[in-house]
Design a protein that fits this description.
This protein is mainly alpha-helical. It has helices at 2-20, 26-33, 37-64, 67-87, 91-118, 125-152, 155-175, 187-193, 197-226, 231-259, 262-278, 285-300, 303-316, 321-349, 353-376, 378-384. It has two domains: 1-181, MFS general substrate transporter like domains (Growth Hormone, Chain: A); 184-385, MFS general substrate transporter like domains (Growth Hormone, Chain: A, Up-down Bundle), CATH 1.20.1250.20. α3 runs parallel beside α5, α6 packs antiparallel against α7 and α9 (197-226) packs antiparallel against α15. The longest helix is centred in the middle third of the chain and has 30 residues, at 197-226.
């Protein structure tokens, strides 16, 4: 069990590290490949777009083919796209590589998390999910370091090294004892399950933090720049916020195991509703950085419980864990794409306060729905929070 956890943690860390490595490379791509702002947006969005397209097929593959082969497929895609970033000299090839990386990420997350959850006792599900998510957040922390190293050393050396790392993880996965595929009802049952209230609730509660994070990731760096923060300072602020989120995620997951899934979710929603509403107000980079840290701390309070809740709900309606985690991939991708795209466009047409206020109201409305749901289902609430 311990070896499996560290394998899955390493896989999601490397995946998110490569996902976050593109930001420091954008200025270099702009100079070398004449990359426009629109082109930079396309390159950035290609990964979640690939995850969106690959989410359900990855879950189907993991349930029919098995979690181990699907994880190896995802690692193969990671290695191939790393080599593309090492040697490609056309933006179209980089866009395609990043899209394929998103598909590979969907394969790695659906199979790796399903493998981990299927081997763990139900009473530790939230804790293990939270710990794996913490590893993924550490990957996001290290991503800009990887991208920065590529600009200093060379893309060929650094991203070829990532390909070697992916191959090493593949060899590690091969050495692990496999598990037979779970009996799966198929994608048609998954689509029917999405109409069940419990699955929809888990889906939305995992989409919401991705939605809020997508808005923040577009607007906050620009606002910090307006307030005079340097690029290094902006990076440091997001480094600290991600570190706080990485610490809170396993704590929230453990709390969802002991106090019920909804307890940390309610607390996170309260904090998110308040802090997101405050984001347009700070008049200094220091105050905005502090507000961002507290906002991401609140969001970190319900990532893991929401994923565990979705896993529980999918299991109750007869879905295997691979399909359950394909739903979480889908919800993350939708939230991230819509939050970043619509949030930026709405802020440009109005002001930053409008999308932030909309997100705060959405968190408050979701909190109300969670409270009402708990009161209407007392027996389920006793088990879920």
């Amino acid at each position: 069990m311990r070896r499996l956890f560290w394998l899955v943690a390493a896989v999601v860390l490397v995946d998110t590290m490569f996902f976050a490595a593109v930001a420091p490379l954008l200025p270099e791509f702009k100079e070398q490949l004449d990359l426009s702002k629109t082109g930079a947006g396309i390159l950035t969005a290609a990964y979640p777009a690939g995850t969106l397209v690959g989410a359900l097929p990855a879950g189907w593959l993991a349930s029919r083919w098995g979690v181990k082969p699907t994880l190896l497929l995802g690692l193969s895609m990671l290695g191939a796209t790393s080599l593309a970033f090492a040697f490609a000299d056309q933006i179209v090839l980089l866009d395609a590589a990043r899209f394929v990386q998103g598909v590979g990420g969907a394969c790695m997350w659906a199979s790796g998390m399903a493998w981990l959850v299927s081997a763990s006792p139900p009473e530790r599900r939230g804790e293990l999910i939270g710990a794996a998510l913490s590893a993924a957040i550490v990957g996001v922390l290290l991503g800009p370091v990887l991208g920065g190293a590529a600009t200093v050393i060379s893309q060929e050396v650094v991203f070829s090294g990532v390909a070697v790392l992916a191959a090493g993880l593949g060899a590690w996965a091969l050495s692990m004892p496999g598990v037979p595929p779970e009996e799966s009802p198929g994608l048609s049952a998954l689509l029917r399950a999405l109409g069940r209230p419990s699955v929809l609730a888990g889906f939305w509660l995992f989409t919401l933090p991705a939605l809020v994070a997508g808005v923040i990731e577009v607007l906050a760096p620009l606002r910090l720049d307006d307030l005079g923060a340097s690029g290094v300072a902006i990076g440091a602020i997001f480094l600290v916020t991600a570190a706080v989120e990485a610490v809170i995620s396993p704590i929230a997951g453990r709390a969802s195991d002991t106090r019920g899934r909804l307890a940390p979710i309610r607390a996170g929603l309260v904090g998110a509703a308040i802090m997101v509403a405050l984001l347009p107000l700070p008049g200094s980079a220091v105050l905005l950085g502090l507000t961002l840290m507290l906002t991401f701390a609140a969001l970190g309070g319900f990532w893991a419980p929401a994923m565990a809740l979705l896993s529980d709900a999918a299991e109750e309606v007869g879905l295997d864990q691979a399909l359950a985690f394909s739903i979480s991939n889908l919800s993350w991708a939708i939230g991230h794409v819509v939050g970043a795209g619509a949030g930026g466009a709405l802020a440009e047409a109005t002001s930053d306060a409008v999308p932030y206020s909309l997100m705060a109201v959405t968190c408050a409305a979701t909190l109300t729905g969670v409270i009402v749901l708990g009161r209407r289902s007392p027996a389920r609430s006793a088990a879920a929070g």
